[in-house]
Write a structure and sequence with these properties.
CATH topology: Hormone receptor fold
Strand content: 35-45%
Largest sheet: 5 strands, antiparallel
Number of domains: 1
Shape: elongated
Order of helices and strands: EEEEEEEEEEE
Oligomer: single chain
Number of helices: 0
CATH superfamily: GPCR, family 2, extracellular hormone receptor domain
Helix content: under 10%
Radius of gyration: 16 Å
Length: 91
Amino acid sequence: MHSRGRRTPDGPFSRSTAILCPAVTEDNAVWPATAAGTLVDDAECLPGYNGSAVRSCLEATMAPGVWGPIVAACERTCHSIGSQAQYADVH
């Protein structure tokens, strides 16, 4: 189970304001719908990828929210067989 992230330290946030960044799949990670001004530090990597994907849903005054740049991404998983490296088949 993944959390929705944590609040970034900059800017006010009201729970009555329902401004969300939409759920998206980008750069080999699944980013959940997230409240504006929230850091997501536990996005789920797609099969064949691993790591800690991190980005923020930026502060916004109008819907929909806007995703910030990805600051940490999922990396492709490499399986080593003998002297050859084989990458997981990702669909």
